[in-house]
Amino acid sequence: MTNSILSPLQPIASIHNRNEFKRLLESDELKQLRRFEAQFAASLEDEKFTIDGFCVPCGKNVSFLVDMQVGGRKTPKGWLPNWRERLECPICKMNNRQRLISTLIKQLLSVKPGQTIYLMEQITSIYNWVHTTFTDHKVIGSEYLGPEYQVGTVINGVRHENIENLSFNDAKFDIIISNDVFEHVPNPLKAFAECVRVLKKGGVMLTTIPFHSASDESVTRARITNGNPEKLLPPVYHSNPVSPGSLVFTDFGWDVLTHLKASGFSDVSIDVYVSQALGHLGGGQLIFSCSLGVQ
């Protein structure tokens, strides 16, 4: 179940529908991983602990921090952390999913120099790492700063973009990276189409989203009515580097794959990654991989 830290990290599966995902969950590899995680949690006496591994962004062996923040809890069988949001590197402070997508960014940028990459974030550890590490590539990041600003405007060194209406020209980027952004967009279908528009032929978008794998259909939690958020369900907020919290508009289910394809991506998959050596635990970490064919 471990991956060599010297070899490219590869998914254990690329999932295209719910049935494939169900078969993966029943695979020996994931069953063995879940048993290991359950036994490990049952053996813990403290709600805070570390797991040794290799941090790719830092290039060092570290002890990843795991605690009960972001929804971790005590169960009759032991502590149950939020593996996706913890396993935090003590140096770069990136958590499990952030380090995973950073590893994939490094692999993509290693293919050839001079690529143009857009990250839907700028005031983050990931953006800072990409911007300072890959100087032979063009790196652009942005944050959403509010409806009062024009897209493409730089405010105090931070570029403002609205993912539903990007300021970039068509076919500008080789790579787009989106970390837990689309659930906060009022019209994610419009945002998907904008990503297709600004992506080059042969380009790829990697995105993470809080995915509700038990739901066939996505659920709209909120919408914009007369210019203001209308909450259809009890509001949920996630942390945001530029505001106290971002409202969740959509809980994505399996139909998000159909919506991404309908937006114009030629191939869409959920890639599942597991690596004890790199600190990617939690029953398999999910990355949505969306590519744009050359034809």
Question: Brief description of this entry?
Answer:
The chain has helices at 18-25, 28-42, 96-109, 125-133, 188-198, 255-262, and strands at residues 13-15, 49-55, 60-66, 73-75, 78-80, 116-119, 138-141, 154-155, 158-159, 173-179, 199-208, 219-220, 222-225, 228-231, 237-240, 243-247, 250-251, 267-275, 280-291. It is of the alpha+beta class and 295 residues long.
Protein topology:
Blueprint: E1 13-15, H1 18-25, H2 28-42, E2 49-55, E3 60-66, E4 73-75, E5 78-80, H3 96-109, E6 116-119, H4 125-133, E7 138-141, E8 154-155, E9 158-159, E10 173-179, H5 188-198, E11 199-208, E12 219-220, E13 222-225, E14 228-231, E15 237-240, E16 243-247, E17 250-251, H6 255-262, E18 267-275, E19 280-291
Parallel strand pairs: 6-7, 6-10, 10-11
Antiparallel strand pairs: 1-18, 2-3, 4-5, 8-9, 11-19, 12-17, 13-14, 15-16, 18-19
Can you give keywords for this protein?
disordered N terminus; 2 domains; 295 residues; seven-stranded mixed sheet; two-stranded antiparallel sheet; globular
How does this structure look, described?
With 295 residues, this protein is α+β, with helices and mostly antiparallel strands. The protein has two domains: 21-80, no CATH class; 96-214 and 226-291, Vaccinia Virus protein VP39 (Rossmann fold, 3-Layer(aba) Sandwich), CATH 3.40.50.150. Helices cover 22% and strands 32% of the residues. The protein has helices at 18-25, 28-42, 96-109, 125-133, 188-198, 255-262; strands at residues 13-15, 49-55, 60-66, 73-75, 78-80, 116-119, 138-141, 154-155, 158-159, 173-179, 199-208, 219-220, 222-225, 228-231, 237-240, 243-247, 250-251, 267-275, 280-291. The longest helix has 15 residues, at 28-42. The radius of gyration is 19 Å and the shape is globular. 33% of the residues are buried. Mean pLDDT is 93; it is low at 1-5.
